[in-house]
Design brief:
α1 runs parallel beside α5 and α8 packs parallel to α10. It contains 28 helices and 18 strands. About 50% of the residues lie in helices and about 10% in strands. The radius of gyration is 30 Å and the shape is globular.
Length: about 800
């Protein structure tokens, strides 16, 4: 009898596991055929990490530095393994289905577990898991190849579930779940999503504190809070190697404080507000949560049967069709809307009417906050409050991303609403009145836009106001049609959901059938919306995917050169280069959201000027050879050892004879007082003979002038991404400049094995004074932050493992309330 009871108890969990598996593979069925997802950022990641991976495979250890992008930067935010984090094995196990299947599976699994911790019936929890796992925004993230973001979003429910369970049911049990969930969340490596998770939890705790004081349970709240410090510390410790190195680098990245001083003498740390809010959700665009095509959907061209295509074709201008997009909101572009599902929004509104207690208020507060902050520059006074006063908020760009909080809170509230309805604790007449009001609100909004679509706006974006009326009229017709169709679609789902619940309340529909129908409604709603942004057409055979990484004629020509050099690719946006330049070469450009602050400043103030000068010369040149003399004036490119310039992938590159090489000697050090003088002066000096040095390093040089000799030489004899070895011979003491990026947190220098000092020159490069004679100079990247972090991660991982084992096998720890998970 007990065995039957146990099997019955575990049956819904088994069903959930197999259903999540089937749904995940069914959606991504091309992977079963052996195909792979071709996503832009996945390609970029493969490009950026190529040098690091090659070193890992050949040397069996981490490089921690790469010279492939932006002339060199730490590898922490590109591809670094942290062996001290033993819980990565759990992550690898959960991802055993492979990407992208694992993203959706883990999202559903973690949301399912969280709902069990909230006391939700397992079958109802399955519906909630589907609502979260198949949210269109997650699919857009996967389609774009934002893998770390997708992973962080997937683990977010475990973190919130652990905190909730600790306060509501069992402090020790919740602490263990929080520790595991947070360790996985932090290990995903997307600080912005984790930051938003903490905002969500903070709102939960503030609300919980208010209710605990009101209910005279403050002492219990305080005790639980103290207990939760332990798993928080351990989770941070488990990921300490990753967090410490990222934090250390953050001070020198674009997220850190600039050394440049503005006229107001007030340059703060963090990103520029314009950069932070460039992707801001339009206030009216918020209606996308309910109607996916409210603002046209995604930045994709119209279909061939659209009015705009027909109109252009009839005016002999069909080729221009690809320039007109469905999306007409205020963002520069978008993969798609943050649609949450009409069914889920309807249940969320119903929950606002029916639910009582702390859960309702913190979920509502968190949702509203995420919407207000997603508006960004459209609600700037509120955004500025957080940029200026909320710690860490100014480190992140693309404020639209904060809608992940709504993406989490809205389906949670929806399922808690269904839990209340199925519990039978609320009177039937109250439920029916609430049902009528929720239907009138959500259904009424969609009906209003069906009848009067012009309420949505002009259907013309700010970039399209100068177009001819015949083009505008066609665009308006198409976009209006998209809105009306999706408003009708949402209305249908709302009415069907309301009908199912009404049937349940009237006794005409049994609970099990109501659950099945609601589940089908949710999956149909979201699945059909998801396919707009991530369908089978995004997948291709592996061999075709690998063709992306085949070298061009220019690449093959450059690869014949076995010396060390850098490459400038003019056929792409050099400093937003998502091509394969960095896959094959060391590039002065690249694609990364956290390049070094000083390098970005060099780009903005000097490198761009070099590119402009070269481009102007190219516009008047008749032969490629005419451009070679111009390169003598591109001093910044030369000091970065830019030996090759790609101007056509299918032609040999331009050889820059003026590139200064891996290292050289200069005669005159030019001392400056601050960063402003430093960056201004490097555009005026001859870097072959002079070096600009901040007066902070003046004590490291012995002479005002160095006497070079034609027999003096320095040569790079061995290259690894984390180790550079030079041999040199000089008659007298010399000042050497190395065409390598200066980064003080990890690079150490040795002369004949004895540690020596080096310093920053020319704003971003390394320099050092070398003694006379023949010697070996070795630069090695060995950051203490990584070594120390690895030890802390090992220790924390072991403690967390013992804590989890203790909770599972020590009865006293598990004797708390278990009824939640056993329902």
């Amino acid at each position: 009898m007990n065995k039957k009871a146990d099997s019955k108890k575990y049956l819904p969990h088994i069903i959930a596991f197999f259903l999540f598996t089937v749904l995940s593979f069914a959606y991504f069925f091309p992977v079963i055929e052996g195909k792979v997802l071709k996503a832009n950022d996945s390609i970029v990641a493969k490009v950026n990490m190529q040098e690091i991976v090659e070193y890992r495979e050949t040397e069996g250890k981490e490089a921690l530095w790469t010279n492939s992008i932006f002339s060199g930067m730490p590898a922490y935010l590109i591809s670094t393994q942290h062996p001290g984090n033993l819980w990565k094995s759990v992550d690898r196990l959960l991802q055993s289905y492979g990407r992208p299947v694992a993203f959706v599976f883990i999202s559903m699994f973690s949301f399912y577990v969280m709902l069990l911790l909230f006391g939700v019936n397992p079958y109802l929890a399955i519906i909630g898991a589907i609502a979260f796992g198949f949210s269109p925004y997650l699919m857009q993230v996967i389609a774009a190849g934002h893998n770390t973001k997708a992973m962080a979003m997937s683990y977010l429910p475990l973190v919130v579930g652990g905190v909730y369970y600790a306060y509501k049911e069992n402090a020790i049990g919740g602490a263990v779940i929080l520790g595991i969930g947070l360790a996985l969340e932090l290990g995903a490596g997307h600080p912005q999503i984790t930051y938003y998770a903490f905002i969500c939890i903070l709102i939960m705790l503030v609300t919980g504190l208010i209710f605990s004081i009101r209910n005279k349970e403050f002492s219990k709240f305080l005790r639980t809070s103290l207990v939760l410090i332990i798993p928080f510390v351990l989770a941070v410790g488990i990921n300490f190697s990753q967090l410490y190195t990222t934090y250390e680098y953050g001070k020198y990245s674009m997220r850190g404080k600039s050394d440049l001083v503005s006229e107001s003498n007030n340059v703060s740390a963090g990103l520029d507000p314009d950069y932070i809010t460039r992707w801001s959700y339009g206030i009216g665009e918020t209606m996308n949560l309910l109607i996916p095509n409210f603002r046209g959907g995604s930045s994709k061209p119209f279909d061939n049967d659209s009015e705009i295509v027909k109109t252009l074709r009839s005016n002999n201008n069909a080729s221009a069709a690809s320039s007109f997009y469905k999306y007409w909101g205020s963002q520069p572009s978008t993969e798609g809307p943050n649609y949450l599902g009409a069914t889920i929004i309807f249940l969320f509104v119903l929950g606002l009417i029916l639910l009582r207690g702390a859960e309702k208020w913190w979920l509502l507060s968190a949702t509203l906050l995420s919407v207000l902050l997603a508006w960004g520059h459209n609600f700037m006074w509120f955004t500025n409050l957080f940029i200026d006063y909320f710690p860490g908020y100014n480190k992140f760009r693309a404020v639209t991303m904060i809608l992940v909080i709504a993406q989490f809170c809205v389906p949670l509230m929806a399922i808690l609403t269904l839990k209340e309805i199925f519990s039978g604790n609320t009177e039937a007449n109250v439920l029916k009145k609430g049902l009528l009001r929720a239907t009138a609100i959500t259904g009424g909004i969609t009906l209003l836009f069906i009848i009067i679509p012009s309420l949505a706006g002009s259907f013309i974006s700010a970039y399209e106001t100068d177009m001819p009326d015949w083009v505008k009229n066609a665009l308006i017709a198409d976009r209006k049609s998209l809105l009306v169709a999706d408003a009708a679609r949402s209305l249908v789902f709302i009415l069907l959901a309301a009908g199912i619940i009404l049937g349940l309340l009237s006794g005409k529909l049994k609970e099990r059938y109501a659950l099945i129908l609601l589940g089908l409604l949710v999956i149909t709603d979201l699945w059909s919306a998801d396919k707009r942004y991530l369908g089978a057409d995004r997948f291709e055979l592996p061999q075709r995917f690998e063709q992306t990484f085949e070298p061009t004629i220019a690449d093959e020509y450059i690869l014949q050169d076995e010396s060390e050099y850098r490459v400038l690719n003019l056929t792409v946006s050099t400093f937003n280069d998502n091509s394969t330049t960095s896959y094959f070469h060391h590039s002065i450009g690249g694609y990364h959201g956290a390049k070094m602050e000083r390098y970005q400043e060099l780009i903005d103030s000097a490198l761009y000027n070099n590119l402009i000068d070269f481009s102007q010369a190219a516009s008047t040149a008749t032969l490629v050879s005419d451009l070679v003399p111009v390169l003598e004036e591109t001093t910044i490119l030369n000091m970065l050892n830019t030996k090759y310039i790609i101007y056509n992938p299918e032609a040999p590159p331009i050889l820059n004879e003026y590139a200064l090489g891996s290292a050289w000697f200069v005669e005159k050090p030019v001392i400056v007082k601050n960063a402003n003088e430093e960056i201004n002066l490097i555009q005026k000096i001859d870097p072959c003979n002079e070096a600009v040095i901040d007066d902070d390093f003046e004590s490291m040089i012995s002479h005002d002038q160095y006497q070079t000799d034609e027999d003096d030489h320095i040569e790079l004899t061995s290259y690894k991404p984390n180790e550079l070895i030079y041999d040199y011979t000089v008659k007298t003491e010399q000042l050497a400049v190395f065409s390598e990026i200066y980064y003080p947190k990890g690079w150490k220098c040795y002369i004949d094995g004895q540690e020596s000092s080096h310093f920053r020159v020319d704003y971003v490069l390394r320099g050092m004074e070398l003694p006379a004679g023949s010697h070996e100079v070795r630069f090695r990247f060995d950051p203490p932050s990584y070594r120390i972090g690895t030890k802390v991660s090992y220790a924390s991982s072991i403690i967390m493992l013992l804590m989890a084992i203790g909770y599972l096998f020590y009865p006293k720890l598990t004797s708390g309330k278990k009824k939640t998970i056993e329902k």
